[in-house]
Design goal:
elongated, 220 residues
């Protein structure tokens, strides 16, 4: 899936940060919110799961230049990823818990790969174990969460909070690798893995006409 840049007729200059209608600026998720027809335009469209929207926002801001704007090419990348979040809202909690565990310990993409100390590795794996227990319908006590958090370094501490985990994982991966391509790869995998776990069909291509309409409203 890829948006055809040549069919975008309005200035494609997405901006970092959060923006209100009438500001003349918008991030990738604002565009998705417009396309979705939300009554209130927001960084968290009604069609998208909040953790995934947060990941796209984080990437949007990371790819912005010194002037706060993304290049047309980078704008297309984050718009494509934002579009992949459409339809993910309402995912069962057990799926979200399983996804969170995989963000931490997946053999290829998991945050655990970048832990600096054995104690941090153990703490991250412990948080993942608790997430899996939640996913399987078990009960994790507040004491267990507190103990896991107390033992963890910055990666696992942030990941213990469900809706903070997406941004924390993306930031950890970006910190470890730094490269633009690594950030994009991790975000794309995380969204695709969510859709896979939730049993969602592949998203249709985003239409240039819909993007043009959203940009027209942003730039008005």
């Amino acid at each position: 899936m890829s948006l055809d840049l040549d069919r975008i007729t309005h200035p494609l200059r997405l901006a970092s940060g959060s923006h209100q209608p009438g500001s003349g600026k918008g991030c990738a998720m604002n565009v998705i919110s417009y396309i979705n027809g939300d009554t209130k335009i927001t960084d968290y469209p009604e069609c998208s799961a909040r953790p995934l929207a947060r990941m796209v926002q984080a990437l949007n801001d990371r790819l912005a230049g010194a002037d706060g704007y993304l290049s047309p090419e980078n704008s297309v990348i984050v718009l494509d990823l934002g579009w992949l979040t459409v339809g993910t809202v309402g995912t069962p909690r057990e799926v979200v818990w399983r996804w969170l565990a995989d963000l931490l310990v997946d053999p290829t993409h998991g945050v655990v790969k970048h832990a600096r100390r054995p104690a941090a590795t153990a703490a991250i794996r412990r948080v993942a174990e608790l997430c899996v227990r939640q996913a399987d319908g078990g009960v994790v006590s507040a004491t267990e969460w507190r103990e896991a958090r107390a033992a963890a370094d910055a990666y696992a501490y942030a990941a213990a909070a469900a809706y903070a985990a997406a941004a924390a994982a993306a930031d950890a991966y970006a910190y470890a690798y730094g490269a633009r391509s690594a950030r994009i790869e991790f975000t794309r995998w995380a969204i695709a893995h969510w859709r896979e776990l939730a049993g969602l069909d592949n998203a249709d291509d985003i239409e240039a006409a819909a993007v043009n309409s959203a940009l027209e409203r942003i730039n008005a």
